[in-house]
Amino acid sequence: MKKGLILLGVISGGLVIVFFWVGNNLDSLVKNAIETYGSQMTGTKVRVDSVSIRPTKGVGIVRGLVVGNPPGFRTPYALRVGEIFLSLDVGSVARRVIRIRDISVSSPDLLYEKANGTTNFDVLERRIAEHAPSSSGNATKQENGKKLIVGRLVIRNAKVRVSASFMKGRTISLGLPDIVLRNIGQSEGGVPPGELGRKVGDALKQKLERTVDFGALARSMGDSLNKATNAMKGFFGQ
Question: What integer pLDDT is reported at residue 21 of this predicted model?
């Protein structure tokens, strides 16, 4: 769209068609971008049910986000989110640093699984890190690209279902404490989208590691899954 606007010789009728097409297909374009770029970053299948964007209001809603599991894990997915709400400063969109006022992730469902000495979220984290620019050329391109500052990011009412290879596909459900991050990228003058993803991923991983102890789970398995569930909930005060 932006390139279309700066092309010399584009007649006004053509511009009207371009504007009309983008205006009526923005939701699907963003949906496809999330699925394509998300799948590339994680190395898994990322899908979205729907996207609703209101550009003039600076509001966007993503519904039905699912991040698949890497190979080697038995649970059907790593993350499923019913709704993600985003609001941003519309006036900052044309600037180098885009200011996002709020990102709210409601009631995500995480399947935290350990297999072959690692977890599915460890694998996803490594893949995202590998996808990030590392060469000087890519770093320069990233430095000159759009950056983000997020005033507040909240992940609330999350539920984590824990599984491991010795559980043979069974899971234990636990509540995850809310995650609140403020002024992400503020001190750096903005961060690239990939860095924002890493910061959020790090916070989520730390919460998971503090909440779930696979060693305690293995020791508590005993004769039944219920015994392990009670032991885990008692260990974490739930």
Answer: 45
- Among residues 120, 117, 134, the alpha carbon closest in space to that of 201 is found at 120
| CB within 8 Å of 41: residues ≥ 6 apart | 127, 128, 131, 194, 197
Q: At residue 144, does pLDDT exceed 80?
A: no
Model pLDDT, residue 11: 29
173, β-bridge pairs: 161
Q: ∠ at Cα 108 (102, 111), nearest 5°?
A: 140
- Amino acid found at 71: P
Whole-number Å distance between alpha carbons of 121 and 123:
5
- Is 127 inside a domain boundary? yes
Which of 26-40, 62-76, 213-227 has the lowest average pLDDT? 213-227
Instruction: Specify if 234 maps to a domain.
Output: no
Domain containing 178 equals 27-208
Residue type, 108: P
Q: Exposed, middle or buried: residue 101 (CB in 10 Å: 0-12, 13-18, 19+)? A: middle
Q: In terms of pTM, does the model score above 0.85?
A: no
